[in-house]
Specification:
Layout: H1 2-8, E1 25-29, E2 33-38, H2 45-51, H3 53-57, E3 62-66, E4 79-86, E5 92-99
Parallel strand pairs: 2-3
Antiparallel strand pairs: 1-2, 4-5
Length: 100
């Protein structure tokens, strides 16, 4: 899904988009910067402050966050939430919600 966002925002090589599970964040230079976070391995508020998550959320950029529920207090009030549910081995249900 992040590859699709990146391609839509003008990233020339969407193959460079990879999950940042072990590095926590990737930055892609498109029409606007894309900050791609994976918060799965982070444990709490101290971890989010250490990586400066809040600083990236204030920038003029697209911020994609995997596992955002781990940092709910850092997430901006107005945002798009994308929920992906497995329906079967080959099907996914996607729900997009604008908050609030």
């Amino acid at each position: 899904m992040i590859k699709g966002f990146a391609k839509g925002l003008g990233l020339e090589d969407s193959d460079q988009v990879k999950s940042p599970t072990y590095v926590l964040m990737h930055i892609y230079q498109a029409k606007v910067p894309i900050y791609h976070f994976d918060l799965y391995r982070l444990g709490g508020r101290d971890d989010f402050e250490t990586i400066g998550l809040a600083d990236f959320l204030r920038d003029n950029a697209v911020v994609c966050v995997e596992w955002p529920e781990k940092a709910e207090s850092f997430m901006p009030e107005k945002r798009w939430n994308v929920f992906i549910e497995s329906v079967s081995e080959t099907e996914r249900k996607i729900k997009v919600v604008l908050e609030p």
